[in-house]
Specification:
The protein is built from eight helices and seven strands; from the N terminus they run αααβαβαββαβααββ. By secondary structure, the chain is of the alpha/beta class. The chain has one domain: Vaccinia Virus protein VP39 (Rossmann fold, 3-Layer(aba) Sandwich), CATH 3.40.50.150.
Length: about 230
């Protein structure tokens, strides 16, 4: 069976970083290019803004090296499951978070939890590295995994709002492809595409917002945030 592009891409990325940098630096650079503590705390604030409360259950898809898990361990009391495609990232995340947190290696386009079991599913900097049909497949299975009033919080890159940072990422991606540089893909979505997906999948779009409208506090070079709720 052919290895999925996002599995191979992140295995290679993590392997290269571990060969070049000390462990902590490599694990910070592996997800979002650094800012391990700052971005973890930002993601926690976004989830609180979206309605996360102590006692809830959350699935962190693409948990990486544990930025969010580390923040939640200090700032929240939740039932947490972290999911990623690279074991080295999961091992590091586990070492940086609560002993009660669970971490799962899972490389399929699905959420490895029972039906209607999660209050929240988040995917920070995940859909940014997937083909559109892969993101759609994840959203489809997320609905199965969510409780009736559960929520999805994810981030994405967009060009339609003329976001300067996102445009620079797009140009970097183009130049990397022209130069045949090996790297995980950068994918761009637009808000109307997400709205159409939600109409087909049974989600209500509660909010979509970029860094210029950040009610969750000071942003840290953030992607656009989408908050969805499972329609009954």
């Amino acid at each position: 069976m052919e290895t999925k592009h996002f599995v191979a891409g992140y295995r290679d990325l993590v392997k290269g970083l571990l060969e070049k940098y000390p462990l902590d630096e490599a694990m910070s650079l592996a997800v979002g290019g650094g800012g391990y503590h700052e971005k973890g705390e930002l993601h926690h604030r976004i989830l609180r803004y979206a309605g996360l409360k102590d006692g809830m259950s959350i699935v962190d898809l693409g948990c990486g090296s544990g930025r969010l898990a580390h923040a939640l361990s200090r700032l929240a009391q939740v039932d947490y499951i972290g999911v990623d495609v690279v074991q080295d990232l999961l091992d590091y995340a586990k070492s940086k978070s609560s002993a009660e947190y669970r971490f799962v290696l899972h490389q399929d386009l699905s959420i490895p939890v029972p039906d209607h079991s999660a209050d929240f599913i988040c995917a920070f900097s995940v859909f940014t590295h997937l083909l559109p049909e892969e993101s759609f497949a994840y959203l489809c299975d997320m609905r199965r995994a969510l409780k009736p009033d559960g929520k999805v919080v994810f981030t994405f890159l967009e060009l339609g709002k003329e976001n300067k940072t996102h445009w620079e990422i797009f140009l970097h991606t183009v130049n990397s492809r022209v130069a045949n540089v090996s790297m995980p893909i950068n994918a761009f979505l637009e808000r109307e595409v997400i709205r159409q997906w939600c109409r087909h999948l049974g989600y209500e779009v509660l909010e979509m917002m970029d860094d210029t409208h950040a009610p969750y506090g000071e942003p840290v070079a953030m992607q656009t945030v989408a908050i969805l709720q499972r329609a009954l």
